TrEMBL record:
Required for formate dehydrogenase (FDH) activity. Acts as a sulfur carrier protein that transfers sulfur from IscS to the molybdenum cofactor prior to its insertion into FDH. This is Sulfur carrier protein FdhD. It holds the Pfam family FdhD-NarQ. Its main location: cytoplasm. The lineage of its organism: Bacteria, Bacillati, Actinomycetota, Actinomycetes, Mycobacteriales.
């Protein structure tokens, strides 16, 4: 956990007085992604699972479909003040090169796209349209997934400062859980896992996130062919609109035995216990 957490001095004030002590915090460092030597983007992330992160990011942007589209992904030399490699630059060599300059990324909230344009952009770009019929998940099973997600959040346990995302089977089995200081990076990491494991399109999996469901997270799920997204917190209006447009089951406020279903509720089987509640 040496690169994902750091120790910093803090002054803690409580009813018992003032205590000065070191505190464990989540590491945040830039990761520059290059395609065939050309800089594509820079994201702030928690180091770890970087190869998965870039695969998931490229999938979400429609640049790759499978792991076969990537010839190699290697760290470039990037040194700190002590001359040590920071491992903060990744160069990806694609089987079919693409022009880098002038590319637009939907994943930023500052992209300037209006709601209608953003919805149409995702719908036309995805190569894995969600099937009309796919998985069915019991609501009791779905309600248990955030608790499973939390048990895998080892860095959050130490710092309290990371988001998490997980991919689950319909019967509630956790296949991959990743943490990151950015919620979109955590999702990219598990989607990258799916790419490398040849699980895309992920028509049989459920994506669970520890925070809110923003437009960009729904976008990533749709681009990966994932039919169901569950979030511990609230969805945004545009996230709901995209889920409805794309045929994705979107569940928010997934806490304990309660949840709000915003679209495609037919993929959920409501248990008697939840229905009674």
């Amino acid at each position: 956990m040496s690169r994902v957490t750091a120790r910093r001095k803090t002054r803690r004030i409580s009813p018992n007085g003032v205590i000065e002590r070191p505190d464990s915090v989540a590491v945040e460092e830039p990761l520059e992604l290059r395609l065939d030597g050309q800089s594509l983007t820079v994201t702030m992330r928690t180091p770890g699972s970087d190869i998965e992160l870039v695969h998931g990011f490229l999938l979400g942007e429609g640049i790759i479909q499978t792991a076969e589209d990537v010839v190699s992904a290697r760290y470039c030399a990037g040194t700190d003040a002590n001359g040590q490699n920071t491992y903060n630059v990744l160069d990806v060599h694609l089987r079919t090169p693409i022009p880098v300059h002038g590319r637009n990324f939907l994943t930023t909230g500052a992209c300037g796209l209006c709601g209608k344009t953003a919805l149409e952009e995702v719908r036309t770009r995805t190569r894995f349209p969600l099937p009309t019929t796919s998985i069915t998940v019991d609501t009791e099973t779905l309600a248990d997934m955030p608790d499973q997600l939390r048990t895998h959040q080892t860095v959050f346990e130490a710092t309290g400062g990371l988001h998490a995302a997980g991919l689950f089977t319909a019967d509630g089995t956790a296949l991959a859980v990743r943490e990151d200081i950015g919620r979109h990076n955590a999702v990219d990491k598990v989607l990258g896992w799916a790419v490398l494991e040849n699980r895309i399109p992920a028509n049989d999996l459920v994506l669970i996130v520890s925070g809110r469901a923003s437009f960009e997270l729904v976008q990533k799920a749709v681009m990966a062919g994932i039919p169901m997204l569950g979030a511990v917190s609230a969805p945004s209006s545009l996230a709901i609109d995209l889920a409805a447009e794309s045929g994705l089951t979107l569940v928010g406020f997934l806490r304990g035995d309660t949840m709000n279903i915003y679209s495609r509720s037919d993929r959920l089987t409501v248990t008697a216990e939840v229905a009674a509640y």
